[in-house]
Amino acid sequence: MEQLWRNQTPVGEFLLAGLSPTPQSQAALFAVFLLVYVSPLVGNTLIMATVSSDPCLCTPMYFLLGNLSFLDLCYSTVTAPKMLLDFLSDRRSISYQACMAQLFFLHFVGAAEMFLLTVMAYDRYVAICKPLHYHSIMNRTLGRTCMSLLPWDLDGGGFLHSMVQTILTMQLPFCGPNWVDNFFCDVPPVIKLACTDTYVVELLMVSNSGLISTSCFIILVASYTTILVRIRSPEVWRKGLSTCASHLTVVTLFFRPCIFIYAQPFSIFSVDKLVSVLYNIIIPMLNPLIYTLRNKEVKSARRRLRTKGITSRGR
């Protein structure tokens, strides 16, 4: 078998199935998904600008929120621009190198966001369970050091995870077919095209991706359960639940598709394209709404930023 695929011509490009069932629907889908892509682009950029420019938001919570907005912006940008271009093209193809790059950055940013959401759970735990000591705990030398190194820690963890996924994929032989049953390159649909048995590689990938997503999700659920169990006062419990609601919503929306896709062998199921659209395109659009819709501090900061901009233009 090994000698057989060595005599085959390696695949130089992949053809993407895309989302459009008919050529007539491509223009309509392009308009819809352009709006869906621009919305998180504007929303996350606005959050980052608001958090970085308002002194009242110089707290660990909003520092983490700014990092989440940045990761969401990067996450949607990995797949959305290529998808939009494919809506305007009759032949949806991607080179082997570009496919591997897309796969790498998808897992790089996705893993970093998982780790960030886990860190945000600790921040909410301290804020709700130890409110009187929140600022002293988070602003200690150790806390400031952790916060200053946080982006590098997240990037390092995401980079290590992504390198494992990409290297395991790139060492597989691809000699045809080259039809990727999705609108972007990801491990499950790409690995099915390998000209060799992928059972062992799949187990390694599932143990990597599945372990990360499942363990982070368990930690998050345990953290929020601990928060609610430790609160005795019904009034404080309702307030704590309200404070955690936005984070719980993001965690549920983000982790459920990831666990569904990456925590089982890839060859036994077909990835639903609607699930892929949900965690690649829709969730980054929802995050700005979820975190700012009921957040009075962010709303006030946006008003101050808008007033400051109007005043500057008036001068």
TrEMBL record:
Major localization class: membrane
Q: Keywords assigned by UniProt?
A: Cell membrane, G-protein coupled receptor, Membrane, Olfaction, Receptor, Sensory transduction, Transducer, Transmembrane, Transmembrane helix
Ranges for the G-protein coupled receptors family 1 profile domain?
A: 43-291
Membrane topology is: Multi-pass membrane protein
Is the keyword Transmembrane in the record?
Answer: yes
Query: Membrane-crossing residues?
Result: 27-49, 61-78, 99-122, 210-229, 241-262, 274-293
Task: Offer one Pfam family short name for this entry.
Answer: 7tm_4
CC annotations in GO? plasma membrane
Query: InterPro entries, alphabetically?
Result: GPCR_Rhodpsn, GPCR_Rhodpsn_7TM, Olfact_rcpt, Olfactory_Receptors
- Where in or outside the cell? Cell membrane; Membrane
Answer whether the UniProt record assigns the keyword Zinc to this protein: no
A molecular-function term among this protein's GO annotations:
G protein-coupled receptor activity
Alphabetized SUPFAM superfamilies for the sequence = Family A G protein-coupled receptor-like
What family does this chain come from, according to its entry?
Answer: Belongs to the G-protein coupled receptor 1 family.
Specify the protein name. Answer: Olfactory receptor
Organism per entry: Chelonoidis abingdonii
Gene that this polypeptide is encoded by: OR4Q2
